[in-house]
Amino acid sequence: MCGICGFFHLQEGADAATLKRMNDRIVHRGPDDDGFFLEPGVGLAARRLSIIDLTTGHQPLASSTGDCWIAYNGEVYNFPELRRDLEGRGRVFRTRSDTEVVVNLYEEFGLDFADRLRGMFACAIYDRRRRRLVLARDPLGKKPLYYAQIGGGLVFGSEIKSILEFPGVPREIDPEALDLFLTLEYVPAPRSIFRAVRKLPAGHVLVFADGQAKVSEYWDVGPRDGPRDFGRARDEFLGLLEESVRLRMISDVPLGAFLSGGIDSSAVVAFMARASSLPVRTFSIGFEERSYSELPHSRRVAAKFATEHHERTLKADIRELVLLLARFLDEPLGDFSNFPTYLVSRTAREQVTVALSGDGGDEVFGGYEHYAAQKLARFLDPAPLRPLTALGRAALRRLPPTEMKKGTVNRLKRFAEGFANPPADRHFRWMIFLTARQKERLYSPEFFARSGAAELHEREPFRAFFERGRRFAGINQDLYLDLKTYLADDIMVKVDRMSMAASLETRAPLLDRRLVEFAFSLPPQWKVRGRTGKWFFKKAMEGILDDATIYRQKEGFSIPIKNWLRADLKELMQETLAEKRIRAMGYFSWPEVAAMIGEHLSGRADHAHRLWALMQFHLWHDQYAGS
Fold first, then answer.
1. 178 and 322, same structural domain?
2. Phi, psi angle pair for 145, to nearest 5°
3. Residues 13/15/17/21 CA torsion (nearest 10 deg)
4. Distance linking the first and last C-alpha atoms of the chain
5. Strand, coil or helix: what is 37?
6. Number of domains observed in the structure of the chain
């Protein structure tokens, strides 16, 4: 696991000192080693977190002919079989690393190389003979890759902070990206918060040659015929999951797993325990607020599989942690769970270098509550029934939120907010945290005009995803939208940045490419049945996990931020969203911000999502936009 950066087809500023500065900015991604390749106008650099081939895996690394050089971040789990095939074609290898396999695979098969890789990766290949730079990113977006075109050339990096070290990269904020962040709490690809910087989308390859960048897609999940007999489907699923976990346990350094006690992480730990002759090391984070803490559930699973279990409790006094993590987020990210993700990563890093996680189960098998809400919405959306939903929203607005993590009142209020969003946005209505009316009140008139605020389904890349989603039936449409947006641009960003901040590699068996393709072949009614999400997954795990683990109500990996903003983080919120600051920046209406703060502090309303997003933007702005 590594961080990478570099430049191509540039002269001014394209020197060894610049390349070193770019690489030093991501030392947390790879503290074990660094390496550089430099030719006139071309630079590749890598930071290394040693996982496999500890002695000979130094990067950047050349192909067997010497015509291509690679800087690579990730793990390719099918590299042994790819290597055997390449050796049969006459390729000679100097190392045992997957990096060398990837660069030779490119030289052998050209741009088709990325589609042959099974794993997580982001890489840059300098093709000296063809005089081009090739960037590639894994199908599900587990590893990040950013780029900027300046002066007829291209600058790239695993994190934006590397790119900003190159002279002349503009720092102008993209107002449409900021609007998308405030709407969704993340910035969707291919945009970034900076107008000049772009994300390479998951499952895409970029070729830069003759001053032009061409981005093309090499993978997308599509509908296909899958098993319709439950017994056969269960056997195939369990076989794929067992293989996926086993492949991700290959490591030359200590390895463990995150364990929340939910079905996803528990299933991963169950198969790790089967594959290992030694106790699996597991790691959990809890909270002082009992309704938020999942430690009793993780302890039960740890006891069942006799793991070597480690816990840490996250307390409300996290002001310094908030400021620390803002430095690791190159873009504002509103996801509350970045804090427990960082702390469980830091806890794990004290014992291991690699941790397996349960990420992806909800987006692939239908675990979120809003999938059931979307089924209900399809019934309530027709015009004759809309007055009923409006009356329900009005009644629920009068109920104050509770301090509990979720609870019936909080769930109903959140779903009512979702129904207020346009039916045309379908599934995304449940992921929208600012309605069009709220934006008009919150944004300054100038920013509102520049932001291009509009319904999500009208925007790129959402327009294409909505169109493609029609290929699927029922709830699989909504799962596809989440897979291509929320999973790649929120969940994977959060996990990558927070684990890499602790210099820990994370692996997600439930997001194995073959497993994802299998999941999308299942009938939609096997995903959400009535109010039961992840129905197939749960039925398949019966007999492997306890029913108490399988069928307990989903809580999510979150923190009591709404309560903390009224107490321990109140002062930080008031400092960050002070009147003088809001008025000086000119993006937002101070009276509206002040009203939200007042309503939240009094308990009349829960504005945690909106206030936290505003705080994250301003904390990010302090770190990056103004320097």
1. no
2. -155, 120
3. 70
4. 29
5. strand
6. 3
Burial of 523 (0-12, 13-18, 19+ CB in 10 A): middle
Q: What DSSP line would sit under 422-457, residue for residue?
A: -GGGGGGGGG-SS-HHHHHHHB-HHHHHHHT---GG
At residue 400, the pLDDT reads 61
Most distant pair of Cα atoms in the chain: their distance: 73
pLDDT score for 396: 45
Domain membership of residue 555 (yes or no) is no
174 lies in the same domain as 236: no
Cα 319 from Cα 125, distance rounded (Å)? 41
Burial of 125 (0-12, 13-18, 19+ CB in 10 A): buried
Confidence of residue 36 (pLDDT cuts 50, 70, 90): very high
* Number of Cα atoms under 13 Å in the Cβ half of residue 399: 17
Count CB neighbours of 563 within 10 A.
18
Among the candidates 217, 248, 271, a domain finishes at 217
Question: What residues contact 157, with CB distance under 8 A and at least 6 apart?
Answer: 3, 4, 5, 6, 22, 26, 145, 146, 147, 163
Q: pLDDT per residue over 448-498, tens digit each?
A: 999 988 888 888 889 999 999 999 998 899 899 999 999 999 999 999 999
Q: Read off φ and ψ for residue 588, nearest 5 degrees.
A: -125, 160
Q: Which residues fall within 8 angstroms of residue 331, CB to CB, at 6 or more apart?
A: 160, 181, 186, 187, 192, 193, 493, 620
Are both 513 and 575 inside the same structural domain? no
Range of weakest confidence among 90-104, 113-127, 315-329, 588-602? 315-329
Q: Give the CB-side neighbour count of residue 104, counting CA atoms within 13 A.
A: 24
pLDDT digits 0-9 by tens, 279-296: 999 999 887 766 567 889
Q: Catalytic positions, please?
A: 2
* Digit-coded pLDDT (tens) for 180-194: 999 999 999 999 999
Say if residue 241 is in the same domain as residue 118. Answer: no
In a domain, 324, yes or no: yes
**289, 364, 298: which is closest to 561 by C-alpha?**
289
Shared domain check, 274 and 358 = yes
State how far Cα 180 lies from the chain centre: 16
Reference 284, options 311, 304, 314; nearest CA is 311
Cross-strand partners of 74: 121
Q: Are 12 and 151 in contact (CB under 8 A)?
A: yes
Are 515 and 537 spatial neighbours (Cβ–Cβ below 8 Å)? no
307 in Cβ contact with 256 (< 8 Å): no
Asked if residues 536 and 387 have their Cβ atoms less than 8 Å apart, the reply is no
Q: What is the rounded distance in angstroms from the CA atom of residue 87 to the CA atom of residue 22?
A: 35
Q: What is the spatial distance between Cα 453 and Cα 448, in angstroms, rounded to a whole number?
A: 7
Q: How far is CA 240 from CA 77, 272, 516, in A?
A: 14, 13, 10
Output the six-digit token pair for 356: 């397996």
Q: Do 539 and 582 belong to one domain?
A: no
Number of C-alpha atoms within 13 angstroms, CB side, residue 96? Answer: 9
Is residue 288 situated within a structural domain? yes
Smallest CA-to-CA distance from 136 within 115, 154, 153, 152 is with: 115
Residue 565 has pLDDT above 90, yes or no: yes
**Residue 613 structural domain:** 560-627
Beta bridge partners of 217: 204
Residue 244 structure tokens:
């996926």
- 434: number of Cβ within 10 Å: 22
Of the candidates 192, 217, 242, which is a domain's last residue?
217
